[in-house]
Each structure stands twice: as structure tokens, then as C-alpha cells.
Batch of 3 targets.
Target 1
Amino acid sequence: MRVIQSTAEKVAEDTSTSKAAFIRFCQKLGYNGYSEFRFALSRSMVATVTYSGEDPIQQITNAYTSFIQQIPSMISMDQVQSLAKSIINARRLKFFGINRTALSALQLRKRLSRIGYDAEVIDDQVVMGDVSEYLGEGDVCVVFSIKAMTQTYGSLIPEMASRNVKVILLTMTPNNKFVDLVNQMIVLPFISKSSTKTFYDDQAIFFVFIEILLNEIARLSQE
């Protein structure tokens, strides 16, 4: 599970070797490189999932229900209200997301448009870099990042912070290097880290939080 969720560089670091050695290892196993090896490993783990006799429908719905029910204990309405006000009062509103978190960013953008708020979703790191250089005071950037990886946002968030952009980080990793740089951080339950037997997707948790946030934005907009 850790290999599947990591980059080649991180696997090499965790095993006290080099990226080149790890790539050679993947090739000796018959794969062209790390990406092909990781895909095969992921497919194999999914194919050999065991449910210990429990109904898969019940198991999966119970798992998501359990983690969704953790949300009230991890966030407060003060946090939700603060984020809602930031979005309502933003001069320009940007949502950053990479890969699957881009889907969450897009979901928030689409749901916001239904109540009259516009935003731009950016899922390309090059474009993120361009945008971070022209944003300024009064602008708001909401970053969706499950693990808050420095290789993805290591230069972008410090750049926006230096330009007085209000940066809000929606994550599932409380101990990250951006804690002191962002204006607000909201930490949600990390369901994909909960089990090595099956693959849960964290976007469902983001989607539920988005509905909580939209409810507050709609309420404030009516006042």
C-alpha cells in the first residue's frame, strides 16, 4: 500500500537506496519502470481483496459511513464559517487540485456556480505556477491536497503567502510543512489510509465536506 501511494523517490528514500536502483529493481521484475510496476501491484491488490465473509456492499458502506461520521469531531462550524466568508468575499477565487483531488476542486466549483459564485479550477502545475505569480491581496486560493506533498506545492504555497494571497488548505494530513504558511487548514478523515485490504477513495470525504461548506455559503448569502 505504501509503495502504491508513493513516488519512486519516496520509495527509494524509505528503503535507504536510490531511485535508479529502485527503477532497476522494477525492470528486473519485468516492468518498463516504476509506473508500470505500481499499476500491476495496485491491480493485484484489488484483485485479491478478501472481505472475511462480510457482504462487500455492507462493508464498504459501513466504512464510508464511519469516516463521514468522524467529520464533526475533526472540524468546527467556526472553521466552516471562516472558509465560507473567505469564498464570499474573495476578489478572485482559485481552486487547486492534482489528479483525483482536481475532481473535488471541480465539484466545489460546479456546486458554487449554482448559487452564484464563480471560480477557476487549475489542475496543471505549470499553470498553477503562473497563477501564483499574479495573485495578490484579496485573492483566495483553496488547495485540495490529501497529503500536502512538498513536491507538488512546495514552491506554490510559499509564493502565494509572500504575495498576501489567502491560502486555504483542505487536507487529510495534519502534520505537513505548510501549516505555518496557509491562512487556514482544514483536516478531514483519511479513509484511504485506514486499511491495507481494500482501496477507499478520499474524494467521497471531500464531497461531503463540500456540501457542508455550500450550506454555510448559501446561509450567509441570504443574510
Target 2
Amino acid sequence: MDQDKITNMIPKSNGKATKVLIPLVVVGLILLMIAFNSVVVVQPGTRGIVLQLGAVKPLVLNEGFHFKIPFIQKIVPIDVRVGKAQSDQTAASKDLQVVTTTVAVNFHLVPDEVNKLYQNVGLAYEDRIVSPAIGEAVKAVTAQYTAEELISKRSEVSAKVKETLAAKLSTYFMALDEINITEFKFSPEYNNAIEQKQIAEQNALKAKLDLQRIEVEAQQKIEQAKAEAESLRLQKQEVTQELIDLREIEAQIKAIEKWDGKLPTVTGGATPFIDVNTVK
């Protein structure tokens, strides 16, 4: 066999192999893509929404490994863990005072109904539903209380806001976990009025306590005077001539005990002395 025949045979053999190999590679790639698109893993804390040719299916995939129809079904993951939404709100109280506050809300999506939320609202549910619902709930409840009651009944106000907001969110397949309302803030004029009212109440309370103290002290003095008068009355009833004479003798005896035996050197005045004849 000459060289030309050998050369002509080699390209022909390689061409046939290439023609067979290329389709096999293509088929393998197609099968690999089909296999890759036939499975999905739903991550922890999420659920899988099944879209089939753009339509939302009633099936919701839980966490874990799942099969799907390749190129026909698409899985949209959605977070069902507790999330936080914070909103600054301005409302009017029952007595038409402007009230501002910050509301922080913890909520989560109802896992088994995320497909309905996706179909009706989409993934922008916080901006479309949660924030407006917070504002509406705060305004509705704040209007039921005066500015002073918003401060004194803060826990009651918070409970009503939570109840109202929970009802609104449940309509869109969301559950409210907790709500925190920061301190209600009012205008500087109202704050000054509140401060002056508190000062007046404190002064009134002090005056009342002072009056009560004076009344008690006066009553104590009256009772003391009554007691002293009663004591004197009883003493007068007990006084007799013999008691008077006895008191005089006791006084003279005390004077003798204190006398040092010397007469006073001062002249021009009477010399006090004890009449010993009276001492018996």
C-alpha cells in the first residue's frame, strides 16, 4: 500500500468518528441540563412557590429536596422567617393634638399560604401592605384617646394597635408576632402645657398636705389644752388646807437645808428667816 492511499484513508476514518461523537455530546449535554433542571433544594427558613408556565400552582414546597418539571416549572423561594418593619408615624389624638411615634413590628408570612400572597401581592409586600397597615392602625387607635391618655394608658394603646394591625395583616396571609411603640412625642407647646399642669398639681398637692398637717397640729394642741385643763381641774378638787400647810412646811425645810448659817450682810431690807416656832 503506497503512502497516498494511507493518507486518504485516515481523514475519512476521523470524519466518521466525529460525526458520531458530536451528537452523543449534544445528547449528553441535553440530558445533563434536563437532570439539573429537574431538581430543586428549598433552603431552611423558606418555602418554594411553584410556577408552571407562569401560573401559580396551589402546591407549596417545604424545606428540602424536590423534583420539578424541567423548563416548564419554576420555583420561587420566599422567606417565612420572622421579619422586622419599622415606620415613623404621625397621627392626631382625640383632642386634636399632633402625635409622632416610631413603630417597630415583627411579623412572618404564613408558610402554607405564601403562594396566595405571591399571587395577590408579589414580593414587595412590606412596602405595599405592611407599612401602610401600620400607619392606618396607629391613626385609627390614636384617634380614640386624648394626648394625656396616650401617655397614661400606653400599654392599652399598644395592645389595641397590635390587635388592629394583626387583623389587617391576616387578610394578606401574614401573622403579627410583636409590636413596639416608642415614646409618643407632642408639640413643644403641648409639652410646656403638660409641664405647667404637673407643676400646678404638685403645688396643689403640697398645699393640701400642708393644710392637713396644720389641722392635725391644731387638733393636737386642742387635745393637749383639754388634757391640761382637765388635769388642773382634778388637782383643784384634790387641794385641801392640810395639803397647803404640808407644801409650806416642805418648802421651809428645803430652805433650811440650803442655808449656810450666815445672816445676810445687806442692810436696808428685811432679813429673811424661818420662824422656827412654826416648825414642829
Target 3
Amino acid sequence: MKTKRNDGRAADEMRELVFRVGVAEQALASVLVSFGRTQVICAVSVEDDVPGWMKVQGVRGGWLTAEYSMLPYSTATRKKRSNNGKVDGRATEIQRLIGRSLRAVVDLEALGARTIWIDCDVLQADGGTRTASISGAAVALQLAFRRMLQQGLLERNPMRQLVSAVSVGKVNGEALLDLCYQEDSAAEVDMNVVLTERGEYVELQGSGEEATFTSEELAQMLALARSGTQQILAAQRAAVNE
């Protein structure tokens, strides 16, 4: 290994993964997910209504959407709260990614005429907040659906499978798994990979930062991502079965 990681991890090693369930009592389900020092609360709420466009277009079933925010104290320099309800471009892009990732594994018709809200609030940011949000939201959503089944609100579980996400990148010419902030800010290539429990891709977000990458390097990073999501899935399964 050429790159010395600041936390001593191997190139293919995840940070410590923790999924702590039930942290927000008034939510339908909630999870505090940690990827190392990155911590995100993912909470699920349900609304007995659907967006107006679904009613106009006569779309059956329900909807699932996400909101993402970084709390002011989540970063080293205080992050300003949104003004006048406006969400910054980065947060908008991330919450759309979270929503797409979860909708890919949910049978929306099985929801009935309901909207599922997933709120992802970053308590502490050290790289990988979007991947932690997706992975934590999947656990919270599975727990929420189980609770709705117990309450007789659903006839079947709408969640077909779990979904997880992880970051990979090229730092000093070497492919690394699960980048912390220091690595992410120095990466020549940065990529986020979203995979289902069955190993199907939901989304790839990758680009060179004033650099390029070869097919071989891409294959390396995708192999690392698959290894990482298998580790995340093991932790997710343990959390939903607590």
C-alpha cells in the first residue's frame, strides 16, 4: 500500500459501522448511523396523502421522498441554516439521490395513498454523509414498514430488499474505500456507489478532480465498493433484526 491513511486503515477497509435504532421516539422509525466519525440521524414519518401530481395523473399507490440537511455544528466551521426555506444545491442533489435510492427497492403501490418522508440530519460530517444517509435510511425504512405491518396499515412489506451506499476514490494514485473528509478533499477521483442487496447498481456518481481514470482503475474502485457494501449490508441486517 502506497497511501498511508490517517486512521491506519487498509485500502479496502471500512470505517467502524454503527447502526443505533430508535433514537427519535416520535418518528415511525429512526436510526443513528455512523461511518467512523460521520454521524447521521435517519428518521421516517408517514403522511396519509400523496403529492398533487400523482392525483392529477391518476398514479396509483404512494410516494417516498427524502430531505437532507447538515446541522450547523456538523462541520469544523459553522454551517449556516437554510434561509427562507431555501435548500442549497448540494443538499437538493443529495436528498434526490437518497429518494431515488430508496424508491428503487420499494413497491410504491403497496404503500397505498401515503407519502413516506425520510429525514436525514447530519450530526457530524467527516466524509461520506450521503452514503451513510442512504445506508441508514434503508434500515429505518425497513423498521418503519415492519411497524406499519404490525399496526395493520399495510397488507405486505413494500420493501423488496435493502440498499446500501459507499464512497470510493483514487488518492495519490491508489484506489481507497470509504473516504474520510481528508481523503475526499485530496482525491484525484471521487465516486459514490449505490448497490442493492442483490448486488444491482442503483446509481454511480463519479468524476475526476482535475484528473482522469482508466477502465482498470474504475474496475478496481467498483470492486472495492462491492466489498464495502457487503460489510454495510451485514451491519444493516444485524440492525433490522435487533
